[in-house]
Amino acid sequence: MAFVSLDTAAIISTSLEGILYGLSVLMFIGTMWAMTYKHSMRDVNRPVAVASVLLLILSTGHIILGIMRMEYGLVTYRDTFPGGPAGYFADVSQETYLIKNSIYVLQTLLGDAVAIYRCYVVWQAPWVIILPIMLWYGIAVTGALSVYGDSQTSSTGVISAIVDMECMGAFCALTLAANLSSSGLLAYRIWKIERSVTTSRTAKVMTTSITRVIMDAAMLYSVALLSTVIGSLCSGSGPFVLVDVLTPIISITFYMVIIRIAIGKNTHSQILTVRAGMTSDTERGSFPRYSMKPLQVQVSHSTHIDGATVYGILDQSRLPTRKGSLDGAYCDALSG
């Protein structure tokens, strides 16, 4: 988008952001349903719930400011601002742009902080999150420098390439590193726990689903961040479009993890409930007239979990020896 004017880029970015924002609102509703359906208020993961609401508020404020800037640049100050609409959108010292950029920085910090929190809850070891926390502080510093540099730019209609582009590139690069490190550590820990404590095929499918959800969200966000980093190195108006699109993507990836893990956890609970019910019937003796020898019943079943169909045999002559292998606290930390 090196040859796209800034006013055209503003229209494209706000339009794309509006589409993704609508999707994020629907996913927020699904997230609240997943966290509260058949749960008492004290069972709700409050830090995750607060983060969900804050992400919605920040993304709402960001899209509102984007619409306001479009109205100011294309209508209100179209004929009065030096340089016309392109000059208005090039002036990063505008108050609306500074607030909008600050919201993006805050939303990024919030999303990465929740990812680090999840990683700590699963690992239960402070040393594991040292690197993600250092990267998080780097994100905060480069984000603050970016906003400060924009505020010090004179309203000449020219964007400061040194302050804005380099800070944006460093900010997105650090965010990419923090996202990959925290998500990778989280997925590795869940996989390692299940590999060491269970041989249940159903539990392994549950673990695989959780790991895949985490990595899917990490890859979606990482691709968007990598595109922004490349765009900032190539200059042009592309990074400004991608930064606006990143704001709802942060919310979408956050909500996606909660919703998909909650759906997988409910499906897993239903499988365990059916298995326990069948075992209870066998213990009581479904056929009291015949008491010659234990009857072994095998029931074929097909379960659809997170896009993959799992086939297996339930052996009703064996009693379940433990609960679902994935600790409930880990699922709650991820899905709320």
Topology:
Blueprint: H1 6-36, H2 46-76, H3 84-90, H4 95-123, H5 130-152, H6 161-197, H7 201-234, H8 238-284, E1 298-305, E2 308-315, H9 328-335
Antiparallel strand pairs: 1-2
Helix pairs in contact: 1-2, 1-3, 1-8, 2-3, 2-4, 2-8, 4-5, 4-6, 4-8, 4-9, 5-6, 6-7, 7-8
The fraction of residues assigned to DSSP E strands is under 5%
Question: What's the total number of strands?
Answer: 2
Tell me the span between the first and last alpha carbons. Answer: 40 Å
Structural class label = mainly alpha
Mean pLDDT reading: 75
Main β-sheet description: 2 strands, antiparallel
Shape: globular
The ordered H/E elements are HHHHHHHHEEH
Q: Tell me the radius of gyration.
A: 25 Å
Q: Give the helix level as a range of percent.
A: over 70%
SS element count, helices:
9
Which regions contain 5 or more consecutive residues with pLDDT less than 50?
Answer: 274-283, 286-327
Widest beta sheet: strand line-up: 1-2
Summed up:
The chain is mainly alpha-helical. 74% of the residues lie in helices and 5% in strands.
Provide structural commentary.
The chain has nine helices and two strands; from the N terminus they run ααααααααββα. By secondary structure, the chain is mostly helical. A two-stranded antiparallel sheet has the order 1-2. Helix 2 (46-76) packs antiparallel against helix 4 and helix 4 runs parallel beside helix 8. The longest helix has 47 residues, at 238-284. The two termini are 40 Å apart. Mean pLDDT is 75; it is low at 274-283 and 286-327.
